[in-house]
Amino acid sequence: MSDTSALLPVIERIFSTVFPLFAMVLVGFLYARKTDSDMGVANRINIDIFVPALIFSVMAGKSFDLFSYTDLMLGTLLMVVGSGLLALPVCKWLGLAPRTFAPPTMFNNCGNLGLPLALLAFGEAGLSAAIAMFLVSTLLHFSLGVYILHDKAQFKTLATNPLVMATAAGLAWSLSGWTLPVWASTPIDMLGQISIPLMLFALGVRMTDVDFSQWRSGLFWGLFAPFTGFVVAYPFAMLAGLSAEHTAYFVLFSVLPPAVLNFMLAERYQQNPHTVASIVLLGNIASLVVVPVTLFFVLD
């Protein structure tokens, strides 16, 4: 009985973390089933305005110190590259194109799912850590990830990417020690607060496009992505001597499903977008099991 009583707070916390996320995803899914929903404009505004506002508002905050997350940022770099290296022999064994299957293994859903998950599971401290890891993953996705998809791709637009610009501005402001006046911080904070619910709603809308004709491949690679992430992340956490808090942040980050952005870039560079969409969406559906199980271990 005592063991059951001890587990109840953990189970309650897992439920209170996961349910709001998937409730918002479900709202997007149900709405899209009833109404023809084109999220293209909303997603572009979110990436160009709302997410950069969230990044800047957190990084420019008094409590954010990017250098306190250097261990997590290094771990993210190793996890992304390591996951890609683990995918290569599997692609060769199955006779598949690494350009199609490596990126979904490497780049996880640290935006749509990772940021709100960290906030609900660990509070503001978790959100700050998740943003530090998100920044590394995003920068790698728009550089290394794009290069994998198309080795002749142009990277000159990377410096003008709103996410990169917001990161640079937030870092500069954080290092300066300045404090934003309320009249400036309030609208930026409010714009940033739009990003997370909109990400989740958009993910639900995207779920209506699941291609079940390729469900075997989609499910295998959708589960292979969090597996490779964990295989790299947990040993790194142990060897690097990460604190208990940082280990929890990093392990949860490592098992996130493939990012929706993988599909968008595969479509842009014509690397089997329908197959990638199946991997992304079935991987996110599988996270209904993977994320709660992982939360049980990191919160216990």
UniProtKB/TrEMBL annotation:
What's its membrane topology? Multi-pass membrane protein
What is the annotated signal peptide range for this record?
Answer: none
Q: Where is this protein localized, as stated in its record?
A: Cell membrane
Keyword set includes Transmembrane helix: yes
Highest taxon of source: Bacteria
Which keywords, in A-to-Z order, does the entry hold? Answer: Cell membrane, Membrane, Transmembrane, Transmembrane helix, Transport
Family (UniProt): Belongs to the auxin efflux carrier (TC 2.A.69) family.
Return the protein name: Transporter
